[in-house]
Amino acid sequence: MLRITDVVKNLLIINVIVFFAVRYLLPFPGIERFFVLVFPGHAYPDLQSGIIYTFEPVQIVTHMFMHGDERHLLFNMLGLFFLGPMVESVLGARRFFTLYILSGFFATFLHMVFVQGGMVVGASGAIYGVLAAFATMFPNVELMLMFIPVPVKAKYMALGLLAIGVYLGFTGSSDGIAHLAHVGGAIMGFLLVRLWRMQNLR
User: Fold this and answer.
1) C-alpha span between 139 and 136 (Å, rounded)
2) Does residue 80 contact residue 89 with C-beta atoms inside 8 Å?
3) What are phi and psi of 45, to 5 degrees?
């Protein structure tokens, strides 16, 4: 098993610390509104706390390190833990971090362009960028979805998840998941690997 790499390790630590600090530890009422990205010009009141969620520039970065709940955090961090080290070991720390951040940014951008409303939180866009990068670099490496012990080549898994994201994103799925953000992150991960000419390594 490939050892955990430096950037992946630090991203795991940051995501976990931010989630538990914001959700449970920091004694500042309403601090969560600075960690959830709100579509500019929109406002969403929290009836329980009386806090109104509105756009703040810092949310562009901070929302990528916060999650909706423990399950959301767990699944994203598992994806980063299992896929990230192999991608980082080939790209190097600087390129891997660039891919992670730009995938997160483009994920949010695509979601905002097409959805134009709501709130976004989580590292899913960045994780999909890592997934797409993995599948582009190592298309024939076999992966297994959690709870489904059937090996699938990375390229087919990525394409399948991307197709699901496109379908649910454009059919107006009301499951509370930013599917087009996943698509945006995957697009950026794919494009960066192609730009760096690191595709089809295995």
Assistant:
1) 6
2) no
3) -80, 140
Read off the pLDDT of residues 139-173 as tens digits, 9 standing for 90 and up. Answer: 999 887 766 678 889 999 999 989 988 888 888 66
List all residues 6 or more positions away from 26 whose beta carbon is below 8 Å from its beta carbon: none
Token pair 């866009």 in the structure block, residue = 125
SS (H, E, C) 123-154: CHHHHHHHHHHHHHHCCCCEECCCCCCCCEEH
Give, in degrees to the nearest 5, the angle at Cα 127 between 2 and 140. 55
List 67, 111, 124, 179, catalytic entry? 124
Cα–Cα distance between 95 and 102 in angstroms, integer? 10
- Tell me whether residue 182 is one of the annotated catalytic residues: yes
- Is residue 103 annotated as part of the catalytic site, yes or no? no
Plot region of 118 (φ>0 → left; ψ -120 to 50 → alpha; else → beta): left
Q: 6-195, what's its fold? A: Rhomboid-like fold (1.20.1540)
Question: Over the stretch 4-60, which tens digit does the pLDDT of each residue have?
Answer: 999 999 999 999 999 999 999 887 888 999 999 998 888 888 877 778 899 999 999
Q: Which of 116-120, 128-132, 160-164 has the lowest mean pLDDT?
A: 116-120
Cβ 35 vs Cβ 90: under 8 Å: no
